[in-house]
Specification:
mainly alpha; 10 helices
């Protein structure tokens, strides 16, 4: 005899199937944006503004480094310490150490977006690849799944190109927390079925929010085909570049004056130079 099912039972099962498919589609779209659209948009942004962006970032970091040297020297003067050659050398060493990692990051950012094994840490690449093979390959699962047909070629391309970044994205899609919510057997018991629907609804809402956030971020939100915006963005970058050059000139002159002039703490507080330093370095008036 067939068991008598609650009238809500089949309705909930249908809802589960709908939610599972919506969740899979949301995850697929997120993966497509991250692995296909994102690098394409970055390449277009690089083509349009790459030279200006690199110059702006380089000059911004250089200006920040000069500003930091000025701050430390002025602080020592305010404490009544003399500015000797040893003081200048010490400040230079401190600032070089503080900014070393920032310069390294800037250099890395100037390389192509897909830096392959340059991003690999602690043998992450082979670990990710083995995990994904087990997740996708029919020999491991006993059957050929839709995920295998959709993502196996993506996995193999990432492996050939030694692209650890794309492996990370694929791992997040297929093996991330809660991915089993879109897979597996739908519960039979009514209360478990209701709870499963609630979990799927929450998971789908969270993934849709994540997808919306991604679409609202750069470079997805940039109108890279709008000539007016492109020209405006180029002018903004050039203005920032000129401002950073002025900042560099200002702090270079300050450092030169500090090096060639002997100030006491009292003299520093009473000089026009001190007020100028305070305004530019600390924003005080």
């Amino acid at each position: 005899m067939q068991p008598i099912l609650h009238p809500e039972h089949e309705q909930l099962r249908q809802r589960c199937r709908q939610l599972q498919e919506a969740l899979r589609e949301t995850l697929r779209e997120w993966f497509r944006l991250r692995t296909e659209v994102y690098p394409r948009l970055l390449a277009e942004y690089e083509r349009l503004f790459g030279e200006e962006e690199r110059e702006r970032q380089r000059l911004s970091l250089q200006a920040a480094q000069l500003k930091r040297r000025t701050e430390l020297l002025v602080l020592k003067l305010e404490r009544g310490e003399p500015l000797t050659e040893r003081t200048f050398a010490l400040v230079e060493q401190i600032v070089e150490r503080e900014f070393a990692q920032l310069w390294q990051r800037l250099k890395a950012a100037e390389e192509p977006w897909e830096r392959s094994l340059a991003e690999d840490t602690a043998g992450e690449f082979p670990k990710l690849y083995r995990t994904l093979v087990k997740r996708l390959h029919p020999d491991a699962l006993g059957t050929e799944t839709e995920e295998f047909r959709q993502y196996w070629s993506v996995l193999q391309r990432a492996y050939r190109e030694r692209n650890v970044h794309q492996l990370r994205q694929l791992h997040l899609l297929l093996c991330g927390e809660g991915t089993d919510a879109s897979e597996g057997a739908i519960p039979e018991e009514l209360e478990a079925l209701r709870a499963y629907v609630r979990r799927l609804e929450l998971r789908l809402a969270a993934e849709q929010r994540r997808l919306d956030r991604l679409r609202s971020e750069e470079p997805f939100c940039l109108p890279l085909t709008d000539p007016t915006w492109i020209e405006q963005r180029r002018r903004e970058l050039q203005q920032e570049i000129e401002q950073r050059r002025r900042d560099i000139a200002f702090y270079s002159q300050l450092l030169e004056r500090l090096r060639n002039t002997t100030f006491s703490a009292e003299e520093l507080r009473d000089t026009e130079l001190a007020r100028h330093i305070a305004e530019q370095t600390y924003g005080r008036r």
